[in-house]
Amino acid sequence: MAEITSMSRGQKNYLQKLRRDSQIVRLIRILIFLVFLALWEGSARLGLIDSFIFSSPSQVVMAMYHMILDGTLAVHTGVTIWETIASFALVTVFGVAIAVLLWCFPKLSSILEPYLVVLNSLPKSALAPLLIVWLGSNIKTIIVAGLSVAIFGAILNLYTGFCGTDPDKLKLISTLRGTKKDALFKVVLPSSVPLILSIMKVNIGLCLIGVVIGEMIGSKRGLGYLIIYSSQVFKLDTMIMSIVILCIIAAVLYSLINVAEKKYRKHF
Amino acid sequence: MDTPLLEVKDVSYAYHTKSGETPALSHISFSVEKGEFLAIVGPSGCGKSTLLDMLCGLLTPEEGEILLNGKPLSESVTNIGYMLQKDHLFEWRTIYSNVLLGLEIQKKNSPNAREKVNHLLADYGLDKFRESRPSQLSGGMRQRAALIRTLALEPDLLLLDEPFSALDYQTRLSVGDDIGKIIKREEKTAILVTHDISEAISMADRVIILGKRPAAIKKIIPIVLTIDNRTPFTSRSAPEFKNYFNEIWKELNHNG
After folding, report:
1. Does the distance separating the beta carbons of B105 and A186 come in below 8 Å?
2. In chain B, residues 50-79 whose CB comes closer than 8 Å to chain A
């Protein structure tokens, strides 16, 4: 890199300032977290808050430690992650497939549009009890619950994106004597990759929501179940721990897709 | 004389919307001989692009007929290449695979065809950029790549829909010159649609002047320039250039 060796002083200063700024941001982020933990732990120990109701960081860590030892934590976490990934995969496949179908048959899409809009705005938690009655209290139901939260929005957003393809690019395909299939595979889908990735980022979170709702209502395993169970037996340590783990799962899954997106952007 | 390559006979067309119809073209007739370069000028929005869309078969005339080599457009085997206003090179493909797009779509991506594309890329200075992304090329080079994408299909007739209008003036002059030379060298028949009078005179053997919407032909002017080695660029310094310009200008601004 020739630029680095021959960098001017102004450029060096500028880069240094950028680096310092991002360091400060990171430092303050960590500091906020530590201060929050210290305040929480301190006020629990001093009796300012009732640690039976509010728990405390050390109690949460202890609860986690015991559940790691007896292996239950791995089971619950594993089940939730697996269900989320399964429903996310289904949302992605079906979302793209149905959106493509709608794009191919505009009449079909204008017929189905009001149904999709209603289903999309429906609070999906209302569906969960119904799904349990229909499909039984098992992992299938939970995956469908996760799917139901994300799928309609995914279809609508993807379809809108497909329809927004530059008409001149489609005209180019026609001038080259291409068919609708060529337009789909050579223009619509490749140009929609960034859109698909950004919709996936939203969907992974939505699937997690659906899965946890499903687990809360009709499951004997998973973090959603753990939250409901521990609230019923007043084990607030376990409950808060489950929420913390959900935060971590959400962050990790999101950043996985983020990495995929960055890789794609770098490629182009 | 042989049948002309293209015959347009009394073609009319109107756009239909809920609120009514907009006539775009009315009773257009002309013909193009093999190897000829024809320019069509007219005020913007007069239906020039509609005419090209019809020649390419994207639209069907409501009245009249279009014959290619004496046969109706739909039965004709003659290949038509269409160059749009923008290059529309796909950012997710390399220049090479962009250029192969037409061959891919028409399932003609044979070693022979690729050989020809390689020649075109080499001849027109895009060899080094085969693996580049379109965004790495200048506007002029992108337009060349778009032309090669069109030429790869070996069209007998080339339609150019203001292919330089997205470029700045200086690039426009040199790319116009460039593309004009390439078309002459490949001995293609071409129809250029433009609203730029000097561009039309500099490139064409004949200029068709269209009136305001609904467009009808106002006049057809053959361009004869007394210069050696005519290229689009040298044409501009021909002594007759100014006269043609004034004639077309008057015709365009004449009420009608």
Report:
1. yes
2. 56, 58
pLDDT of residue A50 exceeding 50, the answer is yes
pLDDT at B254 over 90: no
Query: Which pLDDT tens digit goes with each residue over A220-248?
Result: 899 999 999 999 999 999 999 999 999 99
User: B47 CA to chain A: closest CA distance, Å?
Assistant: 17
Residues B91, A169: C-beta atoms closer than 8 Å:
no
Hey, CA dihedral for B165, B171, B173, B178, is it positive or negative? negative
Token pair belonging to B54: 């019809």
Query: DSSP letter string over B232-244?
Result: HHHHTTSTTHHHH
pLDDT at B255: 58
Tell me the CA end-to-end span of chain B in Å, nearest whole number. Answer: 34
* Complex ipTM: 0.85
- Extract the tokens encoding B74: 């739909």
β partners of residue B32: B6
Beta strands per DSSP E along A82-205:
none
Distance from CA of A175 to the nearest CA of B (A): 6
- Number of neighbouring beta carbons within 10 Å of residue A258: 12
H-run or E-run covering B191: strand B189-194
Q: Is the pLDDT of residue B6 over 80?
A: yes
Torsion of CA A245, A125, A221, A151, to 10 degrees: -80
- For residues B252 and B42, the answer to whether their CB atoms sit within 8 Å is yes
By Cβ distance, the residue of A166, A176, A193 closest to B101 is A176
Whether A155 has a pLDDT exceeding 90, the answer reads yes
Euclidean distance between CA atoms B69 and B106, whole angstroms: 22
* B93 vs A contacts (CB less than 8 Å): 190
Structure confidence at residue A2 (pLDDT): 46
